[in-house]
Amino acid sequence: MKKIFNAYYMAYFLKKYVYRIILVSLLGTIVSILMLYQPKYIGEILNQYYNISGRTILYFLGLTISLFVASSIKFYISKSIAEGIALDLREKFFGKLLYTSVEKISEKNSGEIISTLSNDINVIRDAIGADFFDIFEGVVLFCGSIYFLIMINYKLFIYTALLFVVIIVFSFMSSVVLKKVISQQQRILAEYVSFIEKFFQKIIIIKSFWLIDKLKKNSERLSSEIYKVGLKNAKVRSIIMTMNSLIFQIGIIVVVLLAGLDVNNGDMKLSDLAQFVIYATFLTTPISIIANTVVSINVILAARERILNVYNKLDYYEKRKELAVTNVLESENIIEVNDVSFSYGENTIFDKYSIAFKKNKINLIVGESGVGKTTLVRLLMNLYRVNNGRILIKGNNIYEYSPKYLRTKIFSYVPQESIEWGDSIYDSITLGEEYESSYIEELVNKLNLTKCINSLDDGLNTKIGTVMARLSSGELQRLSILRGIIRKSEILILDEPTANLDKENELLINNLLNKIKNNRTIILISHKEVSRGIADNIIELKRKGD
C-alpha cells in the first residue's frame, strides 16, 4: 500500500508538467535511436574508407547534429521541470508560512522550516534534474546496444584511457565556468535563507502591521531569481554535457581510425571494430541512468517526507476572509476581555481573566516581569488564540475581524525592541505606505527627531544599514514610536516605549500620548512610575495565586 501511495504521490507531484515530461521522454527516445544508428553510418564510412560518398557524409553529419541538438533541448527541458517544481514548492510552502499563526512558529522549529525551504526543496530539484527523466532513453539505448552487440558478435575492447583523460581535462576547465554560475546560485539562495531568517526575527512586527502582502512580493521576487539562475545553470550544464559528448564521439572515431592499421592487416574488419566499441560504451550510460534514477526516487521520497512533516505543522489561520462587521457597539469600553484562559503548554498565564480597556483613554498595563503583559497584548491582536473565553472589540468577537483588518485598521503596535525594516529610514517608518511629507515632518518634529534626521547625509532616505550603529538607543526607540503613530489606527499599543529614553524625551512622549488619546485609544505597557501619572485606567497583572 505504501508503494502505491508513493507512486500516486510522484504522479501528483509531476502532473503540472505532464506535457513537458512527455516531450522529454520523446526526445530521449529520439536521442537513443539516433545514437544507435550512428555506429551504422560510421561502419559505412570505414567500409568506404578511400571512396566515401557525399551522401554518406551528409547523412552522418545530419544525424550527429540532430543528436546534439535533441540532447541539449532534452537536458534543458528536464532542468526547467526540476526548477519549476522547486519554484512551486517554495511559493506554496512560504505562502502557507506567511499566514501561519505566531504560536505555530517558534525558535524550536524555525531552523527546521529554514532547512526545508533551503535544503530539502533543493534536494528534490537536484534529484529530479539529474537522471530522473533519462530512464526512457536508457532503456531504449540499453536494449538497442545489446541487440547490435549480439549481431556483431565480437569481443574486443578499445583502449580509451587517453580519451577519458581528455574528457576529464575538459571537465576541469569547464568547471571553472560552471563554478561562477553555481556561486551566483548559492548567493541568491543565501539571500533567500537570510530573508527567511529575518522573517522569523521580525515576525511580531510583520504580523502586527500586516506586512504579509509586501513579504509575499519579496518572496516571489527572490523565488523568481532563484528560478532564473537555475535555468542559467541548466544552460551552462547543457553546453558542457554536449561538448563532453562531442569529445567522446570524436575520440571514439579517432581510436577506430587508428585501429585501421590492424584492419589493413586483415585481423578484423574496421566497421565491426568501430561499431562494437561504440555499442559497448553505450552500455555504460543506461546502467548509470537506471542506478541514478533509483537513487533519485529514494532521495525525493525522503525529502518529501521531511517537507510534508514541516508543512503539515503550519496552518492558514490568518488567511481568513474579512467578515462584514455591522454591529459596532459604542460604549466607554473599546475592548472587553471576558473569562479568558491562555497557556504556554502547561504554563498557565491567564485563568478566566477579565478586564476592560477604556476608549480614547490611556490604559496602562503594569506588573512584574513575566506576568503576561506582552502576552495579553498579543492576545488582543489575535497573534495568539485564547484557550477559553472571548475578547470583544467594539462589541464584536475578535474572531469576526480578519487578522489583516485587525492589524491595519484597528491596531498599531510599537514593540519593546527597535526593529529595522526596509532599505531606508523612510521605508522603516512608513512600511511601504504613502503619507504626506508634511504629516511625516510634523511627527518627526513632535518626537524631537528633526536634528537627528537632518544630521544624516540623505535624511529619511538614508540606508538603514549605515545608521543603525550611529543612532542612540533613544533615537531608535523614538523612530519605532514614529512608525506606530504614523498609521492612523483606532488603538495604539506601546510596549515599554520610554525604556531607553532620558527624562526630557520621556516627558515629551508622555505629553504626546496625552494629546493623541483624544483621537485614538492608547494601551501602554510600562514599569515606570511616571507612566501612572498619565494613565486613565490602570490594569495590574499579577501572577496566578497572588
Keywords for this entry:
546 residues; alpha/beta; 5-stranded parallel sheet; 4-stranded antiparallel sheet; 19 helices; 9 strands; 63% helix; elongated; disordered N terminus
How does this model look, in words?
The structure is a single chain. With 546 residues, this protein is α/β, with parallel strands linked by helices. It contains 19 helices and nine strands. The strands form two sheets. A five-stranded parallel β-sheet has the order 6-7-8-3-9, sandwiched between helices. It has a four-stranded antiparallel β-sheet with strand order 2-1-4-5, covered by helices on one side. A hairpin with a 2-residue loop joins strand 1 (333-344) and strand 2. Helix 2 packs antiparallel against helix 3 (54-98), helix 4 packs antiparallel against helix 10 (270-311) and helix 5 packs antiparallel against helix 10.
List low-pLDDT spans: 1-5, 157-161
Helix content: 55-70%
Shape: elongated
The pLDDT mean sits at 77
Beta content:
5-15%
The strand count comes to: 9
Order of helices and strands: HHHHHHHHHHEEEHEEHEHHHHHEHEHE
Number of helices: 19
Gyration radius over CA: 34 Å
Query: Tell me about the biggest sheet?
Result: 5 strands, parallel
**Ends: how far apart?**
57 Å
Helix and strand composition category: alpha/beta
List the strand order in the largest sheet: 6-7-8-3-9
Topology:
Blueprint: H1 2-14, H2 18-47, H3 54-98, H4 107-129, H5 135-152, H6 161-201, H7 203-208, H8 212-258, H9 260-264, H10 270-311, E1 333-344, E2 347-358, E3 362-366, H11 373-380, E4 388-393, E5 396-397, H12 403-410, E6 411-414, H13 425-430, H14 437-446, H15 450-454, H16 464-467, H17 473-486, E7 491-495, H18 503-516, E8 521-525, H19 529-532, E9 537-540
Parallel strand pairs: 3-8, 3-9, 6-7, 7-8
Antiparallel strand pairs: 1-2, 1-4, 4-5
